[in-house]
Amino acid sequence: MTDAAIPLPAGGKMMRSVVTPEGVAVHIKLATLGERFSALMIDFLILVATMVALALLSLAVGGYLGWTAFVLLLFLLRAFYFSGFELAWNGRTPGKRMTSLRVINRRGGPLTPAAVIARNLMREVELFVPLSLALSAGSVGLSGGWTWLASMIWVGVLVCLPIFNRDRLRAGDMIGGTWVVVEPKPVLLPDLAEAEQNRQSVRETEAYRFTTEQLDVYGVKELQVLEDVLRSGSAASSEVRHDIAERIARKIGTSPPIPNDLETTRFLEAFYAAQRRRLEAELSFGRRRRDKFDKVSRTPTRSG
Amino acid sequence: MALELKSTQFRREREGTWRELEKLVERAEKSGVETLDGASLTRLPTLYRATLSSLSVARAVSLDRNLLDYLEALCARAYLSVYGVRERPGPLLAAFFAWRLPMAVRAAWRHIAVSTVVMIAGAVAAWWLTMSDPTYYGSFMGGMEQGRNFQSTPEQLREQLHHTASGGQLGAFAAYLFSHNAGIGMLSFALGFALGVPTVVLIFYNGLTLGAFVALYQSKGLLVEVVGWLSIHGPTELTALVLAGAAGLKLATAILFADREPRLARLARDGRDAAVIVMGAVLMLLIAGLLEGIGRQTILGTLPRMILGWSVWVAIVAYFSLAGRARR
After folding, report:
1. Which residues of A251-289 are buried (b: 16+ CB within 10 A; e: fewer)?
2. Do B178 and A105 touch (CB under 8 A)?
3. pLDDT category, A303, cuts 50, 70, 90?
4. Is residue B61 within 8 angstroms of chain A, CB to CB?
C-alpha cells in the first residue's frame, strides 16, 4: 500500500506526514501563522508582566542585592523562558498550551534539548533585536539612520521568513529542525454501518436492498460525503436529505423512498452500509475505487 | 441479521485499546508523563504500538472516515507524548558535560580557527593603528572608554587597573558583565543566520576594542600591568566569544556549503551542534564574569592575576580537547 492511496485527513495544504520510529506515517496539521502569532503574544505578555514584577520586586529589595538579582533573572528570563518551558512541557510554552500548539521534530524522532535551545536562541534576532531596534527608533543618532534602516530591513526579512516557505518555518525552526503543529484532537463517533445493522436485526425488514451494479455507481469519495451528511445530524435539513436520497435513487435506478424523514434516513443509512460493504470488500482485494469516475472492476462479491 | 462488516468487527474488537490509550495520553498531557504510575507507564508504549498497527489495518480495511480520522489523530497525539523531550534533567546535564559539549567544540575546530583569526586580526589592526595615531582610540572603543583614554595620566590609568570595590558592588558588577557578554555571545550565534557577515563583524569589533585598549596602556608604559589585568578574565571571556562566533559561522557554512545534503537538513544538524557550543560559551562567560567581577577586584597583584586567569583557561581548553574522547 502506498501513501498515495491513503486519503489525507481534512486540512489540505497544512497537513504533513511524520514517519514514526515504528515506520507508520501519521498525519499532523501545521500551525497557521495566526495561531503561532497568538501563542507568541500570550508568551510575550507573560514575559513582560514577569519582567515588570521582577523590576518592582528588585526595587523593593533595593541595594546591590536587588540589582544583581534583577540583572541575572532578567537574563535568565530572556534567554531561557521559551526553551525552559519547551523542555519541561514537551514542546509547549504557556502560550502554545493555551492555543493547543506544540513543537515537534520534523524528522519524526524525539525532540532533543539541543533542538529546543537552538530554535529559541534564534529569538535573539527574531524577537529581541527587532524590538530593541524598534524601541531605539527615536534615538538613531548614535548608530546613524542608514545603519538603523539597513538593520530594520534585514530583521524584517528574517521576521517574515515564515510567510515565504510552505512549512511556516521561522529561522529558529530551520536551525532546530522543528515544526510547530496543532495538537490533534481525536473524536470517535458511533459506526454508522453498525447502527444500520442493529436496526435491521430489530425490525427484520429488508426494504432496501441494492444490487452489485447499483453499488458500483459510486466510489469512496461519494461514500464519505454521504457519511458527512449522515453524521451532521440535524445540521443537514430534511429537504437536503430528501434531495440526496432522490438523486441517489435516480442515479442507481431504483425507486426513491417515501418522502418522510424516517424513511429517507433509513434509505440513506441502508445505502451507506451496503455501499461501504461493497467498497470495503473491493478494498480487501486491493482495489480502491476513488470516486464515481474511477473505473469499475468486475468481481463477484456478496452484497447486502 | 445482516452479516457484520469487517471494518465494524475490527472496530468492535479494538476500540477498548484505543479508548484506554486516549485516557492515558490525556492524563499524561494534563499533568506530565512523570505523574503516571508504573503500570500505566509500561502500558503506554504497548497501547501506542497496538493503536499504530490499528491505524495501518484501518487504512487497508475501513472506509469509515471518522474512524480513520480518529485513529490518525489519536496516533499523532500519542506519538507526541511518547516521543517528546525524553531525557531527565540529571542524565541530560551529565551527557552534556561528559561528551556532547566537548565533541561539538572539537567538531567545529575549523570555525573556531577562523573566528580566532578574525578576532586576532581585529586586535592587531586596532593596536597598530592606535599605536601610530592615538586619535583612532576613541573610534575603536565606542562608548566603552569608561574614563580611560589618552588624556589620562599613567597614574590615573594604573589606579583604574588596581581599583577595588565593596562586596555587594562586586556581585552586581559580575552579574552585569555576565549578562552583557552572554547577550553578545548569543547574538553572534544568531547573526550567523545572515550568512555569517554580522558575526564576523562582531568578532572583529571585539578584537578592535581589545587591541586599542592594550595600545593605550602600552603607550603609557603599563603593558605588563594591563596584561595582568586582562589575564584574569580575558582568556576565558575572549575564548567564549570566539566559540560563540564559531557557532554563528557554523550556521553560515551550513547554509552556504550544504554539500550533498539538503540545505534544511544540514542546517538542522549543524544548528543543534552550534546551539550546544553557545551553551558552553554562556557557561564560560559566567565563569569569566565571576573572575572579572569578584576575582579581579579582590586579587590585585599582576602575577597572581595571570596565574589564576591562565590556569582557568588551560583547564577549559584541556577539557574541550580531552573530554568525551572515549565515546564512539
Report:
1. ebebeebeeeeebbbbbbbbbbbbbbbbbbbbbeeeebb
2. no
3. very low
4. yes
Residue pair B106/B321 in contact by the 8 Å Cβ criterion: yes
Name residues 126-155 of chain A within 8 A of B (Cβ).
126, 129, 154
pTM of the full predicted structure? 0.82
Task: Measure the CA dihedral B258/B261/B264/B268, to 10°.
Answer: -90
- Return the C-alpha cell found at B233: 578574565
Residue numbers of A between 228 and 287 with CB closer than 8 Å to B: 228, 231, 273, 276-277, 279-280, 283-284
- Rounded CA-CA distance B190/B278 in Å is 10
Question: Three cell numbers at A95?
Answer: 502560550
CA distance A11 to A27: 10
Question: 3-state DSSP call for residue B319?
Answer: helix
- For A25-51, what is each residue's pLDDT tens digit? 888 899 999 999 999 999 999 999 999
